[in-house]
Amino acid sequence: xxxxxxxxxFYLQDTLTVAKQLLGKILVIxxxxxxxxxxxxxxxAYIGDHDPACHAYGKFTNRSSTLYEEGGTIYVYFIYxxxxxxxxxxxxxxKGCAVLIRAVEPVEGLDFMFKKRGKNIPLHNLxxxxxxxxxxxxxxxxxxxxxxxxxxxxxxxxxxxxxxEIVTTTRIGINVGKEFPYRFYxxxxxxxxxx
DNA sequence: GACAAGATTAGCT
DNA sequence: GCTAATCTTGTCT
Length: 195
Known about the structure:
The protein is of the alpha+beta class. The chain has one domain: Methylpurine-DNA glycosylase (MPG) (3-methyladenine DNA Glycosylase, Chain A, Roll). Helices cover 14% and strands 31% of the residues. The protein is built from four helices and nine strands; from the N terminus they run ααβββββααββββ. The chain has helices at 8-11, 15-21, 110-117, 130-137; strands spanning 26-31, 34-47, 74-79, 83-90, 97-108, 149-150, 153-156, 166-169, 183-186. Strands 1, 2, 3, 4, 5, 6, 7, 8 and 9 form a nine-stranded antiparallel β-sheet that branches. β4 and β5 form a beta hairpin.
């Protein structure tokens, strides 16, 4: 399976292109001998050079330094005292761009996910939000600055996939840069965080 | 060293 | 729909 991993060229593309093309792809994590995988159903783009909501906008800090790495690097940060957010760095080194994975549809490792999220929650609440999907998949700060080209974490295009429609909207939970239509999700997918 | 804000979530009304 | 919880990061002193 690992040999199907997306190559660095995919992540070096324009950030909006990557954000849209990540929909339908499968994120795989194998850590502590437990495999879990999920289909990406919702993403948001953050673009350093003109986007005030991006952590890399107008500044190079300790936290945002990861965003200036080459496309395919993983950027994980802690927010609101409770949650991790999982991002994929895009474009060539030095650009400061990334795609936030906001929601996924569980494929493998459901036992692991329910154990992490709580045994009695409804299936559709397992991974339908940026903090929820990191908790379910077991993503924490130890993944920050790693890349998506290792057997322990990677993304691939499944062989068979039914067609889907992409919905484009503005992003959620931010106070600046609200006007940019940089959020994308798979229409009618029950794991999308919000309509 | 202090302080405010934040790419969220769960729980209650 | 509204709000508390919770703590890291960046900025200013």
